[in-house]
């Protein structure tokens, strides 16, 4: 079957994540040409989402910050699967993904030092402070992220799955020394989530391996 790659943009084709998604599609097609990949481009404008915003606010409750709302709307729109695909003739066609299961990347930053504040903690207090911050992140992810994200996705009748929070993945990362997971003396886009970047390179995802982190909202 076809694997749908869902990308939400609030700035059309100019959004950095849209540019990255197009590059990512090409990389996936190159390293796995026998699979059928389809990039579904979901375009929206936050200024025109008043009713949707109110609905998403009810879904993300008790989370209620502007950041939570932005993340919730992005996930909710992605889960709708309602967007555009680029045809081989160069035209864009309306498309609604029928995928029932969505893979979500939550947990990667928390476990692999992907946040900017992780770099700050490391700079101020070294590995001990970084370890404390990351453990706190993992302990509270269910409260800060999981319920919110799952409700926004399941509102469309889709099931969210979180590969980075698989028990075997968590167990493996806990067994690896922190200095082998991240090297925060190195620049952004290289030292953060170092271990995942190395895996990406091994898989042939050379461009993706050097992408800097961007907030989902």
From TrEMBL:
InterPro entries: Asn_synthase (IPR001962), Asn_synthetase_domain (IPR051857), Rossmann-like_a/b/a_fold (IPR014729). One of its GO terms (biological process) is asparagine biosynthetic process. Keywords: Amino-acid biosynthesis, Asparagine biosynthesis, Glutamine amidotransferase. Pfam families: Asn_synthase. CDD domains: Asn_synthase_B_C (cd01991). One of its GO terms (molecular function) is asparagine synthase (glutamine-hydrolyzing) activity. Transmembrane segments: none annotated. Gene3D superfamilies: HUPs. Residues 124-201 form the Asparagine synthetase domain. Signal peptide: none annotated. This is Asparagine synthetase domain-containing protein. It comes from Aegilops tauschii subsp. strangulata (Goatgrass). The lineage of its organism: Eukaryota, Viridiplantae, Streptophyta, Embryophyta, Tracheophyta.
């Amino acid at each position: 079957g076809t694997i749908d790659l869902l990308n939400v943009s609030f700035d059309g084709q100019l959004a950095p994540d849209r540019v990255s998604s197009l590059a990512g599609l090409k990389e996936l097609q190159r390293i796995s040409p026998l699979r059928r990949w389809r990039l579904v481009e979901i375009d929206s404008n936050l200024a025109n989402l008043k009713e949707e915003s109110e609905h998403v606010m009810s879904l993300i409750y008790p989370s209620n910050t502007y950041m939570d709302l932005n993340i919730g709307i992005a996930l909710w729109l992605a889960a709708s699967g309602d967007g555009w695909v680029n045809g081989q003739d160069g035209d864009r066609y309306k498309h609604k993904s029928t995928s029932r299961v969505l893979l979500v990347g939550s947990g990667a930053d928390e476990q692999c030092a992907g946040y900017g504040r992780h770099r700050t903690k490391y700079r101020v207090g070294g590995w001990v402070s970084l370890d404390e911050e990351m453990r706190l992140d993992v302990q509270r992810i269910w409260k800060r992220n999981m319920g919110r994200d799952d409700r926004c996705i399941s509102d469309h009748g889709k099931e969210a799955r979180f590969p980075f929070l698989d028990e075997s993945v968590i167990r493996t990362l806990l067994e690896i020394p922190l200095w082998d997971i991240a090297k925060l003396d190195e620049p952004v886009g290289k030292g953060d989530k170092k271990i995942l970047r190395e895996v990406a390179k091994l898989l042939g995802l050379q461009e993706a391996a050097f992408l800097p982190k961007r907030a989902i909202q």
